[in-house]
Fold each of these.
Amino acid sequence: MKLPETSDTIAALATPPGAGALAIIRISGPAAFSTASSFLAPAQRDPEHSAARLLSVKNGPALVDRAVVVFFRAPASYTGDDTVEITCHGSPYIIRTILNLAVKSGARPAEPGEFTLRAFLNGKMDLAQAEAVGELIAAGSAGAHRAAITQAEGGLSAEVRGIRTALAGLLAEIEARLDDSYEEIPALETRAFARRAAAARGKTLSLAAGFGAGRGIRDGVKVVITGAPNSGKSSLLNALLGYDRAMVSRRAGTTRDTLEASLDIDGFSILFTDTAGLNARAASPLEREGIKRAEKAIALADTIVLVKDASVKESPGDRRAERETARLALKGTRLLRVLNKADLLTGKSRRAPGCLLVSAKTGDGLPKFKAALVAEQKKVFRDGAQAVVTSARHFAALSGAAAELAGLEAVLKKNRPPLELAAEHLRGALAALASLLGETTPEEVLGNIFKNFCVGK
Amino acid sequence: MTAFNYPDSFDVLVIGAGHAGCEAALAAARMGARTLLLTQDLDAIGLMPCNPSIGGVGKGQLVREIDALGGEMGKATDLSMLSCHMLNTSKGAAVRSPRAQCDKKMYQAAMKRALEREPNLRVVQDEAARILTKGRKAAGVLTARNTRYNSRTVILTAGTFLRGIIHIGMDSFPGGRYNHPPSNLLSKSLSGLGLKLGRLKTGTPMRLHARGIDFSKCVRQDPDSPAAPFSHFTAEIKNTLLPCWITRTGSATAEVIKAGLHRSPLYSGKIKSTGPRYCPSIEDKVVKFPHHGAHHLFLEPEGFSTEEYYVNGLSTSLPEEVQVAIVRSVPGLEKAEIMRAGYAIEYDYSDPCQLDYTLETRALTGFYMAGQVNGTTGYEEAAGQGLVAGINAALKVSGREPLVLRRDEGYLGVMIDDLVSKGVDEPYRIFTSRAEFRLLLRTDNADLRLAPRGFALGLLDPALKENFEAYRAAAETILAGGKPAKLPPGPWTMEKARATSAIEKIYAMYVQRNRKEAEKMKKFEHLRIPPDFSYASAKALPNEARHKLEKNRPLSLAQAGRIPGITPADVQLLWVLLEKRKGGRP
């Protein structure tokens, strides 16, 4: 079970990810100073409180960045614990590398709202602020949850899941034997078992290494633009970007593939995906493929912008787009309804409450639309919050699991390996992966046992 | 007919004298509560209607824990033991566990004697028909004979009796166990209290006459020598132990079963409720594992003075004629005589999520439930719950703090926490894989973990306290590499202190990690959620979490975190809200 931990050292990016020339990484907890010092040069043995200094961030002998570092001694810090704030360059590569260095020297990637929770519990905040703290945790965790599911795309998530399944299977083999009252299950074939454990560890290590090297998961808000054909989705994207990224025409079905583009709004990085219109009567295989990709994009979105044509009555296509969006979107995904072509509005045209009225053509309503896109993020980034850098979480979880699996291998090398200790390591490895994929419960393991072994009388 | 108002009133009234009921009644009485135990049948006290066996992996740990808290199960087992094996000897100490065969009648006699000798306890033969209430509080019990017993608390240990239906082949008839009528009135009374009931199923194999068994075709399994006692307070096992015998089913058995499946109440759809995956019927085993050519059968004597043998591994609800064919298809059992047919039983259980961590129902103050009625299986699981319910009822009437064991303190804690926070969808059995602190929860240290509680509750003999404390100090000293002081005489010996320290030493690194995790959890166990905490006003919590917490009403943040579907973020939020309510700081 995952309970909040308040006595270890946590690290996180304290500025919006993916944008901005500078980024702040915050490390807080009893070992914050030693954690930071392990990759800062020259080493800071007894740093002065609250004084800024320019230091080198080193990954082994390699220089990662020159950063401004401030050390805050407890209790005079944001959280009330020892805290280090590192202001570095805003490149995603540098941010990831520094976070991974912190993880390697013992810090844990912070959960959403964790800095604020500590500040609150350490009496750094007024009790009246409790509600605000609560909102922050709720908003942050919703975002992180989505991030865990949506950001590990490209088969990565499947790979991590595969490791988890393999480990749960290995654990079931051991647990079945430990709990077998009648000792009927044949003894574990240690050599074959060790080979499978080693394979899982190899996979875990190579995945972790990928994240360690700053493998690109793009951090940012994923906004997918969708709607009925010819509602002006691509025009809207072009208008937001300020240049013609997408081809537009009066014909429905002009956009076949999904198009991606990024934009900074108020310091937040927004990754737009323009999709093919969800057309029931797709004319060509190409258009059908486009729709398939659109559906996939919707399922991975943080925010969905549903575009309708303001100049005509609501069409079956609009209703279909609404339905499809509701079906495909993940629970908790934000939905923004936009009525485009406001410039063509006439008296008989519709106005729907809760919809943003914009004109891609004249630019009317665009500033309001942009503000709406980052409103949620702004809420999360109120004082003291932190971004969830997915790659750092993956790195920490996978390295933790790999370390446990190394322990498992050592146990398996013993003469008559003690299975209950092997189980401890497998449980540890699964617990490490829990932050990515959720816990592996005893019920899951038991289910595995009863499926595969004929046990019991 | 007007009710007879029983002249004496009680603090604790226990319904049912099975393994849960006996422990509940004894614990409450020994803690000074005026206790009444109601049973349908005085001759069925402490009956083992399935296998007369106590212990097994996980279960053995439970019995040791019950014993360390002053329970009776371990002692009764030692007195009636007829065979005994230490299990998992090839594996580590944490999963090693004793398992004993008992003389069924001797076990009952030992338990009945213990009940009868308890000064604060009265045992009465009558059937409970209705739980009496006063407002939202339990007030006593009305019996089938229309006698009214007034009691401040009531503990229901109904086993499989609530609307029990027995199946043998396609025949079925009402019964709480073979030859005993079900308690249908009580089932109705529970529904009337607003308790949610469900259906579960379990089963038992046939019993054979020894003269039909060709032991020369079976493998002899000798008992351990010397036999290890279950109880901390038993110096040695005095009975002369008997062997058990092993044979196996073959392809012939599988054929017989397949041919009879259409007459199986399980496979014809007649039985719809879920049985324990851990105790599959032989028809289940053959269907689900067709590639397993053979399934082991253990032939276990039911007593010293009977010819009856229990056929461990042949649980079935097929028709009697198919049962005969099944048995006779097994090598060594060709001439078998079935004395009792195997059967399946379906019964009502009460969703354990409706209980508090003290086993008190949330629907009715002072009303507790323990044992199989809570959806568990096994005598040990039942006894453990009975003990905890009895202790808590006695604590409640004397206005003392309840006893809630943590998951790092014992399998008792693991089991009750699992039941209350997760509920059941099949009869719940304890497994060591359910314990995240498995290396801490061993048979050798059950006393170190729980005897201090036993002494504090007044359930262990205070005269032994000095011996125990010296033992505890000695174990610690040995572990630290020092020379321990001599122990005063008593059940706790230096030899035992050395043995437990040696185990602790082997596990040292891991135990340390377990303890660290346990400490962290403990901190959250201590973050109590007040019983009147209003989740409805906790707007920041997501709806789903709010409903779950409202239904479960965890006592602490740690328990809240263990409810399925409650996220770490929910726990953090709840923490913030609690701090705000307290208006102080942790």
Amino acid sequence: MKTILYIIQKEFKQIFRNKGMLPIIFVMPIMQLIILSNAATFEVNHIKFGYIDQDHSSTSRALIETFNASSYFNVIRHYPSENLASSAILRGDIDVLLNIPLYFERDLQKDQYNTLGITINAIDGAAAGVENVYVTQLIQRFNTRLKVELTQTSDQFVQPEIIETIPLFWYNETLNYKTYMVPGILVLLVTMITLFLSGMNIVREKEIGTLEQINVTPIKKNQFIIGKLFPFWVIGMGLLTVGLVLARLIFNIPFLGSLPLLYLYTSIYILVVLGMGLFISNFTDTQQQAMFISWFFVVIFILMSGLFTPIDSMPKWAQHLTEFNPVKYFVEVIRMVMLKGSGFSDILPNLLKTTLYALIMNGLAVWSYKKTN
Amino acid sequence: MSITVTNISKSYKNVEALKDVSFNVKSGELFGLIGPDGAGKTTLFRILTTLLKANSGTASVTGFDVVTDYKDIRNCVGYMPGKFSLYQDLTIEENLNFFATIFNTTLEENYELIKDIYVQIEPFKNRRAGQLSGGMKQKLALCCALIHKPKVLFLDEPTTGVDPVSRKEFWEMLKRLQQKHITILVSTPYMDEAALCDRIALIQDGEILQIDTPKAMISHHKKDIYNVSAHNMYQLINVLKQYKHQHSVYPFGAFVHYTDSRTDFNMADLKAYLESKSLSEIKIEKTLPTIEDTFMELATT
């Protein structure tokens, strides 16, 4: 026990003396949290909108006025010809183009039916989908108004009222994306920092040769490993705390669930990450190699965690693959506990899976750590 | 016997690092392993300090087998690897305390043993190891290797890259440690250090060439050795190598060491030959053999 305590003390000394590492551990994650949480948005706003009005009728003007009034479409431009409009899309001046054909109003009144051409820049498919929904909604609203006007003028039978839905958004009433993103980004930061640090740490001793010196001492390998990894466990928990405080103070994210429950889960989760870090450092010879392998895993874990893209919309095989992703479990748990106020029994399946993961990962890591080579 | 090595062989992929090596080191002996870079010295050290397993053969340290009793060995040996491998970002004192703790001891407990060495670096005890000079780093590493009062000390090229004054001091320290009944196995590529050991083993390409006391090793030298010099040393070596009676020719400090294949060698003959090859300022004199001459003799035959 005395030995472990001494190693822990020594590790902390080394961490705090490393002038290059200290800001990476404490300042960078905070900056990332602030920057990413403000920047990583799924909302589609300020859509660059343009139109071609060949009709120049009161209906076409009213239609354009509808877009003008919408807060989603803010840059409205008129193009006299299709050629000019398509080169504007090519240049990136506009992303959505509405083409109102000649005799639009006349045909609409005559046939009670007409079509409109919408062109959307779909390089970003997700954004294009959202833009399409906005455009469709606006035109539908315009349509209803038009129908009322038409039914008043012509003596047709009265159409039934349209069914309207009134949604209630639970757990995030204002659909604030930050409420959704901040807990996830916090998971990302805790994972990244603890994995990188633990992955590079033992390799560093290998690189500078101290590991060889230590291997000729009677120290037991579990003493050494615990002593080396415990400081990073503390740093991980510290990062979570700092992140939660920032989430509350800067982003005003609600915390509905139990704080001890989140800490309980995180304390086990970090063990998984540390085990992984140790495992990586056992199979690498330099910090550079360890860094590359850690990055490889972190990128896969983050993209398949449900942090940015929902797991439900992934293909089946990818969904099965996410079962092996510890980050996925943490993202689920932190969102459940913070936003839904889930209790112990709700997160129990994730807690058990994470515990199992921690046991397997650390078992593998300790097994593969050899004092001889 | 403090260290016994019996028929140890070790190979890495295609390289045979040690070929059937056997030797013994007596208790309290200062035993030198002398050989050029790549001779297999470090491999042997790593096997004896339980860091590496041999392909075949057995070895024991203080009676413990290096494979089965590795835990006991780790308790009673001190190892100083060739590369400085202490924590550069910890101070002298912190490094010492760290190694004391992992050996379950304290700096005070065995202070007597390291006192002589420690007093030299004590004024800098709050300086980080990375900022020490080469000689001080080496003293610190020796202190760390001695902190738990080991019975056997393994020193892998401790004086490589160290200035001549520190080298001399270092060997004096080893002599003092020997008086405290510590068996020392030390390796070095410097032949001049060999004379300071009780016994030495000459090693090359993974094979032990000869084991003996430095004195005996020199006296075994059969041929007379001559220091030869001329105005152009490079030309001199080439010309000597073409001489039909030459036995061996190799540079040695400011001279060329020459041995002749004949029993009735005559300096005047050689001088005449060299002059005929348009060499000037020729000096030839008989000299006493050194360990290096023995090594060259054994290594080339």
Amino acid sequence: MMTIIRVAAVLLTGFFVGLTLEGVSRKIIARIQRRYGPPWYQNFIDVFKALSKNGITHGWIFDFGILMALGGVIATLAFVPLGDLVAFPGLDNLFIIVYLFAVGALGMAMGMVGSGNPNSSIGVARALTQMLGYEIPYMISVSAVMYYYKTASVSELMLSQQDSWTLLKMPLGGIVAFISLLGMLGKKPFDTPIAPAEIASGPMVELSAKYMGLLMLMHTFSIFVEIGLFVDIFLGISNYWTFLIKFTVIWILATLISSVLPRFRIEQVVKFYWKVPLGLAFLQALFVLLGWVF
Amino acid sequence: MIPISYLVLVFLFGSVVSYLITKANRIVGAIFNFLLTFYALFVLWNLEIGHTEKLFSILEGVENTFKVSSLGKYFSIISLIVISLVSFFIIEWIRKKPSRPAAFNAFVLIMSAGIIGVFFSNDLLTLYIFWEIAVLGSFLIVPMGKEDSKKAAVIYVVTSAIGSYMYLFATFSIYNKYGILEFDQVSRFLLNEPSNLFKWFIILFIASAGIAKSGIFPLHTWLRITHGNAPDAFSAILSGQLVKMGSYVLAISLSVFPSTKLLASFYSGVPLLNYILIWLGNISIIIGTFMAIRQNDMKQLIAYSSVANGGYILVGLGVMNSIGYAGGLFHVFNHAIAAAMIFLSFAAVVYRTGTTKIDEMGGLIWKMPWTFVTYLVGIISLAGIPPTSGFISKWMIFNALLTKGMFVTLTITFIGSVGSFLYVFRPLAGVFLGQLKKKHYEVKEVSPVMLIPMLVLTLLTLFIGVYPKPVLDFIVSIENSLGIKPIEYSGTIIKTSLGQWDTLTVFTMFAVGFIIALVLYIIFPRGKKVELTDQYTGGEYLFNYDLYHYATGFYRFLERLYDKHPSFEKLYGMLVSFFKSMGEIINELFYKVSPSGYVFWISIVILILFWVRW
Amino acid sequence: MANHERNIWEKIADQLRSKSLWMLHYCTGCGAIELPPSMTSRFDMERFGMGPMATPRQADILFITGYLSAKTLRRVIYTYEQMPEPKYVIGFGSCTLNGGIYYDSYATINRLDYYIPVDLYIAGCMPRPEALLEAFNELMKMIRKGEANGWKQYKENYDWYKNNQIRSLGEVLVHDEFHE
């Protein structure tokens, strides 16, 4: 029973905080561009408007793909500890979260390509390639952390940082994870898969109405998973509220960085990730093996 | 219950019977094959561990025997599951293909006899004999596929011979030195062996048979050609089963001869020899992954993925701690099932469309939905995504590498894992999703006879993904018998030193998430179903929607980064042409037909004779 | 056009729709140049929740700037039919109203709402961004009141619109890339 309440709490937090922060980030970008910007609740309106329209579908795989995407991401989010709010204590293994996350990604990719539009196939091909780019340095830097604390459970990783934050202990790993985080979020300069002016918003090209709304929800939840993991692993012990504060700070930082950068081409993304962050991640792993941790 | 030796004999005689029956009626012959393999699965399932049978004695002082070990039983059951289900598939498939059905059925049974013998051999020589029987059977089936397949068969048998002769050399060296060949005794003698060089030589040469068979670098090139050109349904056995014979030999060379006890530790408890093998596995993962991303032929694509997965198994086995070894063994099961599913769904596609090129197909999901489901679950398992069984083994291997602190190997396994998302998606998008080609409008789903084995495998991999206890029980008994600390698990919770996870909770949570999504989906207005050709085209009218399908050069932007990669296939090709030209020189010199040549050689010989004054 | 009574859910939905209008701009004429200032810092369309979208599937408004030739009209109709309902059309500039300066051209059409239902026109040559924003506000009010019903009209009078379209564009006899 408690588990159900906790899962519900996690999901509702993901929904409200996630959508609010997306609206806030639009506001911030607007302010950087010297505009007034939409209200903070704009994304709630967008989601529900999209859900209220009468869309079109390209057959069962299109529908099923979107359900699988949203279902997979909801399942993933339930395993992410939000500070001291842990839905499944002891079962929040990092590998599980990372790979369960792939269910959602696969569902989205499958549904979108199932629409039969080549633009979405190109977008998905790019998204997968980009994944090959950012996932490797991210996993190495996180593995160094796991090796150091001898556990793969996210909440235990968080609780192990009593003396100081992992970010301060392993600054290189933290930087690598943050750069990879930008790629995961699909923020500029790593928004090649969605490139609206180039491939008509990539995977979403055939998405209308309800389908768009469900996918926006999925996007919100996945942002929550990605940043939530970063906050838990690198930014010290936090309870529910400090978790949200740290989350907001990271999200705004990512927004600020992305709003002033142009877009990489896809092979530049892979080259970049496999040069700089991967090298730094290996350096960090070497430091951890040698015991050079602050 | 009949003894194993009789079972092998039944298979060998059954092959003759099957040949005759298939000559009369193809389908009855295929049904006979299925019943026999299914019966064998039943027999093997009920075997007791430790059961021993005497066979014959070729070398002095060596009794050739069968002995049921847990390792052999595990491998043989996986093999027979794959073979019997593929045989069921063949009942329908054999109506159109292959070119010589009678021989095909007979050789499948000969091969199965060899396989059963391999897994229950108690000494190196018996293993070799049955190994060659299995190779013979499969080698003769391969040429029944496409045009290139004769060449493929030659490459297959040559590569296999390199491995097995090295193995035979090691076997005779052991016999020469100790006079025994049984696994237990050999490992006992090796423990007392003072020379490190000899131990290295034995383990490496025995492992080389496995390396050749499971397509590990540097003997990986045969997989693409053979898997790609073999008869379609047989590719499932090749990749799902025969490659696993190689993994079995690797497991024997690393664990039955306990490499961690034989050799000094090199890096956190792993000997240098294992480390070298792990690196061969790493290179295989890299090659398999990146070459699979490039392929346009779907069978060759999955063949390269077999290279990568063979690498995974070797990495897992090579680490040789409790969790890594378990991961390697579990991966044997997962890859066998997943590869069989994928190749069977490809066989179904080829059965209906007659092509294996990804960019010649598209949108087949609308015509063959169940085949698509099989392929989908197969790739989810192959890519190691929960809630299928494929994730469990990958998780174990990651955990093992992480506890050992092997970061470079860990990176490469991550590359292999993420890369597998890329390459499995290529046939998914190119063959099953996207625009349906005009020439495939009339394609129908394959018949239930073909669907049943595919769906059985699908359910099996989902079931083991949620409830892995049956496989874990096997692995624990194997690890117990080999003196490795068994992995811990209780119910559906698997534990390691790095934490635990519960397969059932993950599955339940996924189901809950799916239901939440479904509820949201249902309460909001229903979407209007439109045609597949009703597409956003930037306002343009299209008439040939065949072209509105993105499948050619799917990852071209990524492939461009490693277009100029060094290729071992080319290197071996150069070697082949070098030997060919050497042969031609000799031919030119010694076998010249013209009289002047003979006069020249006679004069040379006479000159030499005079010179040595004989 | 009989204005049927909206139920409570439709009223809420209309409120939401009016506050989040996603726009597909079909820019063939000179009017396109008025859009950038209305999107960027000076007039900032996003504060009303509006934004440009890449494909008709995601869009709510079809925004047509400038004249339409017979060739582009086909694309507009095609695009309009791909949009999910409810959908709104804004005709921008005199060209969509009465042909503008091209009123006597053999190749352009004069009135857009013979072919697809237009909810709102912005007169002028060119209308300035202020007029644009005024029009958007007007459209939002219309949506909130349930008056922007062009998409329903199109469904109800589909034959009439189709006849007009065919009369003007001609029946397509040869089905290939060059004739339709």
